[in-house]
Design a protein that fits this description.
alpha/beta, globular, single chain, binds acetoacetyl-coenzyme A, 4-stranded mixed β-sheet
């Protein structure tokens, strides 16, 4: 059986490429398990500072695998509890960039939204079409899409199941940048390489602080940010970064 997730590294960037082209990268359980295993391996690898998740030009992912759940009863679906594994994607501490071209639908859109930045090709289409299947998003779509684009747009997207173009998704705040279809992977890698030059402990702290926005009040979030800021003064990278600035040279970050 072909590898469901292709992995490669390029300097500090670890890349996971979804590889079920025959079903537009539909996310079956086997694929999700390999993806999570590879993401966790990159997260634990000190040589990797940033992770990219990409699909093909035609599809990032067209959603959870409908064939795997179509016949499930309430007891089956809740006892299997397959969606619980998504918590492990959300728990990755290094920055993750989604490189999205073509369809990012249902669980595919939710996977992109588990990432920290989304680089979209101009052909990308984002949507949560679960309503047309008689269900609603189950891997965070109602929560993350609403936080990204606001209540009123999220209601319409989720209740009609229509797709957003890359431009609409960018204008709504879901997408980091829109690039040409031909260049989407190169542009995703270029952003990853740029972030990969940054001090890894500060990158993790930045991700942790930004994601805390969803779970805290402003006062608690500000306190949390301040403590993370102070904690970085225990790192060699802070000493190096500030010294390099004063000495007018490029910093050499070690992740220590
Ligand atoms: N699950 C399983 N198979 C899928 C799939 C999915 N989510 N999406 C596409 N496929 C399969 C198709 O069945 C088809 O297989 P066959 O060639 O064997 O028939 C193949 O991929 C190609 O798809 P189409 O022929 O349909 O391609 P198209 O270009 O005409 O249409 C599409 C593309 C609009 C994306 C269409 O495939 C589609 O609507 N897919 C389903 C999208 C969807 O509803 N996603 C939500 C899933 S539920 C979910 O994700 C729940 C959650 O929150 C976790």
């Amino acid at each position: 059986m072909a590898d469901l997730i292709l992995t490669n590294t390029e300097g500090p960037v670890g890349v996971c490429t979804l590889n079920r082209p025959e079903v537009l990268n539909a996310l079956n359980i086997a694929l999700m398990d390999v993806l999570i295993e590879r993401l966790e391996a990159f997260d634990a690898d000190p040589a990797i500072r940033v992770i990219v998740i990409a699909g093909s030009e035609k599809a990032f992912a067209a959603g959870a695998d409908i064939g795997e759940m179509a016949d499930a009863s309430l007891v089956d679906i809740s006892e299997r509890n397959n969606l619980a594994r998504w918590k492990r994607v959300a728990a990755i501490r290094k920055p993750i960039i989604a490189g999205v071209s073509g369809f990012a639908l249902g669980g595919g859109c939710e996977l992109a939204m588990h990432c920290d930045m989304i680089v979209a090709s101009e052909s990308a289409q984002f949507g949560q079409p679960e309503i047309k299947l008689g269900v609603i998003p189950g891997a965070g779509g109602t929560q993350r899409l609403t936080r990204a684009v606001g209540k009123f747009r999220a209601m319409e997207i989720i209740m009609t199941g229509r797709f957003m173009t890359a431009k609409e998704a960018f204008d709504a705040g879901l997408v980091t940048k829109v690039v040409s279809k031909e260049q989407f992977l190169q542009e995703t890698m270029a952003l990853a390489r740029e972030i990969g030059k940054m001090p890894p402990l500060a990158l993790k702290a930045a991700k942790e602080a930004i994601l805390a926005v969803d779970n805290t009040t402003l006062a608690t979030g500000l306190e949390y940010e301040r403590r993370l800021f102070y904690s970085l003064f225990a790192t060699e990278d802070q000493k190096e970064g500030m010294k390099a600035f004063q000495e007018k040279r490029k910093a050499d970050f070690k992740g220590k």
